[in-house]
Write a structure and sequence with these properties.
The chain is of the alpha/beta class. The chain is 19% helix and 26% strand. The strands form five sheets. The chain has a three-stranded mixed beta sheet with strand order 2-1-15, covered by helices on one side. It has a three-stranded mixed beta sheet with strand order 3-4-5, with helices on both faces.
Length: 254
């Protein structure tokens, strides 16, 4: 088994991205592209094969490829993003992902962003907030329940996606911002809380026994290092577009 990391180039229109919980500030596009390239190199160094989805300069959020699909062992579900401007992103992702999985497609009235879906074992926790609705949760459940997955909805109010507030560090362990999501939803897991001064630090990307974390959160990363090996990457310019480390790839085990 090997890990494929599907990524998509930083588009020229990134500065026109959708924003929900952060203010719009200037983005240095040269630095953003350099940070994305370093992110790809980090994933490659951790054993991932990088597969590029074709660039879409006309789609400002297209670098955040995670939101366009949910990948489990048996199938992949192409989402219907909550922001209408993002729905055209799914076409090229489906074409590329179709080489690795049979595809299913969410349909109206469902909305669902991949950043709202956290898989922990055979359970998929799905954030209900500004981007994902009840119909999205139900359609996802309809597609994956035949494969013995459970789907549990989690209210998300104060951040963009569920994975902004909680992600997996290792089997049975999560990192969480308790101000953004109720930790009781994950009471069957050990919990490491983010440092209060770093509210966005709960978004980390697990690759095997390593987690990739944003360099902007040194206090939380120090806590995580007591449990797992941490590789940091600078994604400060992408964060201005409300992106984080999980957003920039789709991990497919093949």
């Amino acid at each position: 088994m090997r890990a494929v990391a599907m990524t998509r180039p930083v588009p020229r229109s990134l500065t026109e991205c959708e924003l929900t919980h952060v203010q719009r500030v200037p983005i240095d596009m040269t630095v953003a592209r350099a940070q994305h390239a370093e992110y790809e190199r980090t994933l490659a160094a951790l054993g991932c094969e990088i597969v590029h989805v074709p660039a879409a300069d006309e789609l400002p959020d297209s670098v955040f490829v995670e939101d366009t699909a949910i990948v489990v062992d048996e199938i992949a579900i192409i989402t219907r993003p909550g922001a209408a401007s993002r729905r055209p992103e799914t076409g090229e992702v489906a074409t590329t992902l179709g080489s690795f999985r049979q595809l299913r497609f969410l349909s109206e009235p469902a909305t669902l962003d991949g950043g709202d879906v956290l898989r922990l074992g055979r359970v998929l926790y799905v954030g209900l907030g500004t981007r994902t609705n009840d119909a999205g949760v139900q359609q996802l459940a309809d597609f994956i329940s035949p494969y013995s997955y459970d789907v549990r909805a989690v209210p998300v109010d104060d951040c963009l996606h569920l994975k902004s507030a909680v992600t997996e560090l290792a089997p049975g362990i999560v990192v969480i911002n308790p101000q953004w999501v109720n930790g009781q939803m994950f009471r069957d897991h050990a919990i490491i809380e983010v440092d209060p001064s770093e509210p966005a630090a709960a978004n980390v990307l697990r690759i095997g026994e390593t987690v990739v974390a944003a360099a902007a959160h040194p206090r939380t990363n120090a806590r995580l290092s007591s449990v797992v090996h941490v590789r940091t990457v600078d994604v400060s310019e992408l964060a201005k577009a409300e992106g984080a480390v999980t957003c920039c790839s789709l991990i497919v085990n093949v």
